Amino acid sequence: MKSKEHTRQVREKVIEKFKAGLGYKKISQALNIPRSTVQAIIQKWKEYGTTVNLPRQGRPPKLTGRTRRALIRNAAKRPMVTLDELQRSTAQ
C-alpha cells in the first residue's frame, strides 16, 4: 500500500538520473527511496511522458475505514437500532 506521494522535484531527479544512465538500484541509493518507487516513477514517465500526479480512478468512498468500523460496531451492539438512529449517531 502506498503511503505518500513524492514531491515533483524528487520525481524529476529520478528521471534525470535515469536519463544519465544510472540503474534503479543506484538511483534508489542516491535519493534514499525504495527501488520499487524508482521503478514505478520511471514506468509512469515512460508510459505517460510526465511525472505529474495523475487523477485517480473511481469515486472516493463516502465513509472512511474508521467510520465504517464504528458503524458496524454500533450496529452489532444494538441490533434493533433503526437506520435513522444509526446515521445520527455516526454523524456525531
Automatic annotation (TrEMBL):
Gene3D superfamilies tied to this protein: Winged helix-like DNA-binding domain superfamily/Winged helix DNA-binding domain
Fetch the InterPro entries from UniProt.
Homeodomain-like_sf, HTH_SB, WH-like_DNA-bd_sf
Designated name of the protein: Sleeping Beauty transposase HTH domain-containing protein
| Superkingdom in the source lineage | Eukaryota
**One Pfam family this chain carries?**
HTH_SB
Residues in Sleeping Beauty transposase HTH domain copies = 1-51
